[in-house]
User: Fold Alpha-L-glutamate ligase from Salinisphaera orenii MK-B5.
Amino acid sequence: MAFPGVGEGDRPAALMTTLGRRLRARLRLMRHSPPLRMPSTLRALGILGMNERNGDYIGIYNDRRHYPLVDDKLKTKELALAAGIATPELYGVVEIEHQVRELDRILDGRREFVIKPAQGSGGNGIMVIADRRGVNFLRASGASVTRSELEHFISNALSGMYSLGGLPDKAIIEYRVKPHAVFDAVSYQGVPDIRTIVFRGVPVASMVRLPTRQSDGKANLHQGAIGAGIDLASGRTVDGVWFNNVLDAHPDSGNRVRGIQVPDWDELLTLAARSYDLTRLGYLGVDVVLDRDHGPLVLEYNARPGLNIQLANQMGLLSRLKQIRALAQVPDDAAARVALGQQLFGG
Assistant:
């Protein structure tokens, strides 16, 4: 497939691909050679820094008017469902304090569900209920939660304890994702998720975040989850990163994180690419989970995605972003944009 500005004889694109291989090889040395962490060296490796991300990409390509569509998970869910994009089923929303007493009506006898703040960040304020035991609820860890404790948790979410800026919030109650078996051997208790960076509608990098005992079963890198890069063309994982250290095996199970084939890979990337059309955010992080019964489900969008995806893939984002930025136009069709990203950055 041919794309505007990208051809078989495109010498700059071929050069960037060659440089990318060299950069990945050099980045593997970063944990052994501290001098490579000097700013000048990081720039030479094509590492995207926070200031450059904010000024040259988020500041230019993300219109702040569209931020509420992604900062509020309830609005994100409504937007995605209207476009036919699958998300975890919404059971109900608690908006004001007296609705906490209507919890039985919302749950409708369900034994498992997830409660999260609509405008939460960093994975905070999420309670996963895996079952019931008598009048109490059981968390995924096996810990028991009383009805009073559950109501208090929801009240805290409404007060803004977990929300951006501490503003009053809503509590979302939704389907508990059942993780695909493909990650069972390299995941501790929680649900792995797949983050894809989409620039101008083109996927440029992906990684899977694997929960560990250290992260308490959460797919949060800052709390101790593993980030394993994913080759865009094949959908296979590469070596993982854990607290900025490269590793090839999960610290809890000892199983290899490299070489795992992500199911429904092209469908997953297409969901990520379509998210650009929904949000109109040019620089976007798309988080997708793989459910064993429902396949890929969009979990949330992020207008300010972090930079650890570079460590997980052992490559710098900057060269990839510059290639997409240099294109006079990108395809209108999401599947064609996926193919473009795979052509440029796969392998």
Notes: Residues 228 and 298 are 19 Å apart (CA to CA). The mean pLDDT is 87. The first strand starts at residue 90 and ends at 94. The chain has eleven helices and 13 strands.
